UniProtKB/TrEMBL annotation, chain A:
Protein name: Twin-arginine translocation pathway signal
Superkingdom per UniProt: Bacteria
Organism: Ancylobacter dichloromethanicus
InterPro entries, per database record: TAT_signal (IPR006311)
UniProtKB/TrEMBL annotation, chain B:
GO terms assigned for molecular function: flavin adenine dinucleotide binding; oxidoreductase activity, acting on CH-OH group of donors
Family membership: Belongs to the GMC oxidoreductase family.
Oxidoreductase recorded as keyword: yes
PANTHER family, per the entry: LONG-CHAIN-ALCOHOL OXIDASE (PTHR46056:SF12)
Name used for this protein in its record: 2-keto-gluconate dehydrogenase
Native source species: Ancylobacter dichloromethanicus
Superkingdom field: Bacteria
Organism classification: Bacteria, Pseudomonadati, Pseudomonadota, Alphaproteobacteria, Hyphomicrobiales
Keywords tagged on the record: FAD, Flavoprotein, Oxidoreductase
InterPro entries referenced in this protein's UniProt entry, alphabetically: FAD/NAD-bd_sf (IPR036188), GMC_OxRdtase_N (IPR000172), GMC_OxRtase_C (IPR007867)
Domain Glucose-methanol-choline oxidoreductase C-terminal, residue spans: 391-507
Chain ranges of the Glucose-methanol-choline oxidoreductase N-terminal domain: 86-305
A Pfam family reported for this protein in Swiss-Prot or TrEMBL: GMC_oxred_N
């Protein structure tokens, strides 16, 4: 997949991505880029296209429309770091993505990240949800995504409070709609 | 200050574990002038070191040494190596408990007589009655500063409580309040009042919540009669040829194996480690493990019938602000078989943060249904159900000889299956909890499965007859007079109430008994 993208070039991919599932996510050289959010993630242990797929998959597993891509990317980044020193993990992830893309092509003629509707992609994930690959990605997300303090405000969770004196003077009983 | 005792001092009482049972027993004995060594597997933290972050705190406090599970409970599938969410640190799980301090009800001490025969349930009456325990409950409540006892006002209700209270009243419940909590609602016993921090489970950083770490052990140490040795993992209890306990073998903080002699040994490692230690102490004299002539060591493991109901409303609740569990409905706690089950349950307010909600709301769940529930977090209210589960001989802590811990000892395997009575009670509670929230305008209810066990009970049960259980009415093992059990594993049956107050009351009563027997030189 990486060679295909390289041949077409990033601008073509950006256009495709704009209409596809991957949103603003694109692969350029050895990096996954999100120009809209102005970040890039360099990947060397995994294939860049694999990382793009993982980020799309992460959002499909825990879809929060108000959470930007970068938090899903941060949650997936450990697979890149760990794959560099763990060949078994690398194989699990790469092979898992190949399986997913094979299913996607058979059903929709495009790789997973380019399947248009979340429901269609989720239907593919349901076919692999008992696999070690899926459970690895989903299980890792539970902490890797939801334990990022930066996303807590999106959920209305305020985190640590003792350093602010608790909530005794900050609304522990301020509910007004009852 | 803390008195160091010699390893060869065979006049000391050795207590394994420093939680609600062991920490209280050790302190009370020290106050009576008896020399005590508490061996605690975990580290000692100061309350200032506690962390207002769920996963970070979990790493700091939780018992994560290897354990295995089996059975049809969902914990086995989702958290196969975390049967229980309990603490490995000085203070034990009293560091992380929520503070709910309820007495068992009279009939809950005699379930075999009250409930009658129930297929698969190994019911047994306690060898003590509520009446016998009442003075010790009173002493425990005073010592722990339980609200709504001893003239101590209740805690103020937080947002989560206000939703809970409105719903409870809407559907006709009468016994609803911010409960009896061992959390100061006003300064008491040199500890300040609750600051509504909202991280009760992560160790109270203000000191308003009672724990043996801050409220008992320092008092014991001041007498000069108590030494607490952290990072000391007991491997084995030893005995002499007559079958009397002589001391314990443990691995110290430097990894060295030590032998502490003892006049008396009391085990208070919670209901998984305590039976494990007895079983791992098997000898030629006691081939099935210590104190196990009944074969009941490790059996009748109970975890309370639990579950949670979270509900999402149109507007914000901010349930996480303030005391985690100061809210209770007691109307379902009684005995009323018209509901289709024996025993009863409490409903108590509960909140967890976004990180733990993601882990526990629907373990293994994913997709829009799960994510949209998480999106509703700020508009959520939550309650925990805690009811009496049926003791079953097959629910059991055993040694898993295929898996060894970091010291090379077999780990505990925890096997659990719900009894049909547990299932019927849980379904009733889910429906009642959802009805409460529906009545206040919930747009969605989320019946949430039990978490890894926080209330671990019953694996060294108390019995009148030696053939029926492991310990007598004083927590003294039937087989070995100078070997005691001082934690919730003594519970004959579980009751519907959070167990800590009963554990503390039993420990205070046991301290009195041990001191008397020592004076009489019977042990």
């Amino acid at each position: 997949m990486a060679t295909l993208i390289d041949r077409r070039g990033p601008s073509r991919r950006a256009v495709l991505a704009g209409i596809g599932a991957a949103g603003a996510l694109m692969v350029s050289g050895a990096a996954v880029l999100n120009p809209r959010e102005a970040w890039g993630l360099e990947v060397t242990a995994l294939k860049p296209e694999t990382m793009r797929t993982l980020i799309v998959m992460a959002r499909d597993v825990y879809p929060h429309d108000r959470v930007p891509d970068r938090f899903y990317a941060i949650a997936m980044k450990p697979y890149e770091t760990d794959a560099a020193k763990d060949p078994a993990l690398k194989a699990l992830v790469e092979d898992g993505v190949v399986t997913l893309n094979t299913l996607a092509r058979a059903n929709y003629g495009v790789p997973y990240a380019d399947v248009g509707w979340e429901d269609q992609r989720v239907a593919l994930l349901r076919q692999i949800e008992d696999s070690a690959f899926f459970e690895k990605v989903r299980g890792g997300l539970v902490v890797g995504l939801y334990n990022q303090e930066e996303i807590w405000p999106i959920f209305g969770y305020e985190g640590a409070s003792a350093d602010k004196g608790g909530y005794i003077d900050r609304g522990f009983d301020d509910i007004a709609w009852l | 200050m803390s008195a160091p005792f010699d390893l060869n001092d065979d006049s000391v009482v050795v207590i394994v574990g420093s939680g609600a049972g062991g920490g209280t027993l050790g302190t009370e004995l020290a106050l009576k002038g008896i020399k005590v060594v508490i061996l605690e597997a975990g580290q000692r933290h100061n309350m200032e070191d506690f962390v207002n972050n769920e996963w970070e705190s979990f790493s700091q406090l939780a018992w994560t040494d290897m354990r295995t599970t089996s059975g049809s409970w969902r914990v086995h599938k989702n958290f196969p190596n975390l049967p229980a969410w309990i603490v490995k640190a000085v203070g034990g799980s009293s560091v992380h408990w929520a503070g709910a301090s309820l007495r068992l009800q009279e009939h809950e001490f005699k379930t075999a007589s009250t409930y009658g025969g129930l297929d698969g349930a190994n019911l047994l009456d306690w060898p003590i009655t509520l009446k016998e325990l009442e003075p010790w409950y009173a002493k425990a409540e005073d010592r722990m500063g339980v609200t709504r006892t001893n003239g101590i006002p209740g805690l103020p209700g937080n947002n989560n409580f206000k939703v809970f209270e409105a719903g409870a009243k809407n559907i006709g419940y009468k016994e609803v309040s911010t409960g009896r909590m061992a959390i100061n609602s006003e300064p008491r016993a040199d500890r300040g009042s609750c600051q509504q921090i909202g991280f009760c489970f992560q160790g109270c950083k203000s000191g308003a919540k009672w724990s043996t770490l801050i409220a008992e052990i320092p008092r014991g140490e001041e007498t000069g009669n108590l030494e607490v040795r952290p990072q000391s993992m007991v491997q084995k209890i030893e005995h002499d040829a007559s079958g009397k306990a002589t001391g314990v073998v443990y691995v110290d903080k430097d990894g060295k194996t030590q032998r502490q002699k003892a006049r008396i040994v009391a085990v208070a490692g919670n209901s998984i480690e305590s039976p494990r230690l007895l079983l791992n102490s098997a000898s030629s004299l006691f081939p099935d493990g210590l104190a196990n002539s009944s074969g009941q060591v490790g059996r009748n493991y109970m975890r309370h019938m639990t579950g949670s109901v979270y509900a999402i409303f149109e507007k914000p609740v901010h349930m996480y602000r303030g005391t985690t569990m100061a809210g209770i409905v007691r109307d379902e706690a009684g005995f009323d078989t018209k509901r289709g089950f024996v025993g009863g349950y409490e409903m108590e307010t509960l909140s967890i943060g976004v990180p733990f909600m993601a882990a526990f709301l629907d373990p293994g769940g994913w997709g829009r249904s799960f994510a949209s529930a998480m999106d509703g977090y700020v508009n959520m209210a939550g309650l925990w159900i805690v009811g009496e589960d049926m003791p079953q001989e097959t629910n059991r802590v055993t040694l898993n000889t295929d898996v060894k811990d970091q010291y090379g000892l077999p780990v505990a395997n925890v096997h659990f299956d719900d009894h049909p009575n547990d299932v019927a009670m849980r379904n009733h509670a889910y429906a009642q909890g959802a009805a409460m929230y529906d009545s206040v305008g919930a747009t969605r209810s989320l019946p949430t499965p039990p978490y890894p066990s926080t209330h671990n009970l019953g694996t060294n049960r108390m019995s009148e007859k030696a053939r029926d259980g492991v310990v007598n009415k004083h927590g003294q093992t039937h087989d070995i007079p100078n070997l005691f059990i001082a934690d919730g594993s003594q519970f004959t049956t579980g009751g519907a109430e959070n167990p800590t107050l009963t554990i503390v009351a039993l420990a205070l009563r046991q301290a009195d008994f041990i001191a008397g027997e020592m004076t009489r030189k019977t042990i």
